[in-house]
Automatic annotation (TrEMBL):
Pfam families named in the record: VKOR
Keyword Endoplasmic reticulum: yes
Region (Disordered): 1-32
Primary subcellular site in the record, as a coarse category: endoplasmic reticulum
InterPro entries per the UniProt record, alphabetical: VKOR (IPR012932), VKOR_sf (IPR038354), VKORC1/VKORC1L1 (IPR042406)
Protein name in UniProt: vitamin-K-epoxide reductase (warfarin-sensitive)
Membrane topology: Multi-pass membrane protein
Species name: Cyanistes caeruleus (Eurasian blue tit)
Subcellular location: Endoplasmic reticulum membrane
Record keywords: Disulfide bond, Endoplasmic reticulum, Membrane, Oxidoreductase, Quinone, Redox-active center, Transmembrane, Transmembrane helix
EC supergroup of this enzyme: oxidoreductase
């Protein structure tokens, strides 16, 4: 389920919840796309591209510039972790 947090007291309105279909804070995912094969392939391709870019940028940073940036290295780590998660995730067999 979706965790619903009431924002009515914060905005002075009642009935506004995060995650409800009419909420401005609800995710705008087309129906049926979130669990589809196309979504899984898109996530895998984009995470692979970002991981490759991270490896290239990391090599440039380390070997060409001879520098080490903590923020950059942590970003590279996040990209590699996303790739690992997308590779180990069970994907739907068909659309």
């Amino acid at each position: 389920g979706v965790t619903r947090v009431s924002l009515g007291s914060l905005r002075g309105h009642s009935g506004v919840t995060v995650g409800s279909p009419g909420s401005p804070w609800s995710p705008r995912v087309p129906p049926g796309l979130s669990r589809s094969r196309a979504a899984a392939v898109t996530l895998l391709v984009t995470s692979a591209a970002s991981a490759l870019a991270s490896l290239w940028l990391g090599a440039v940073l380390l070997f060409r510039l001879r520098d080490l940036c903590v923020v950059c290295v942590s970003t590279y780590g996040v990209n590699l972790a996303l790739l690992w998660l997308n590779l180990t995730q069970k994907h739907p067999k068909s659309d």
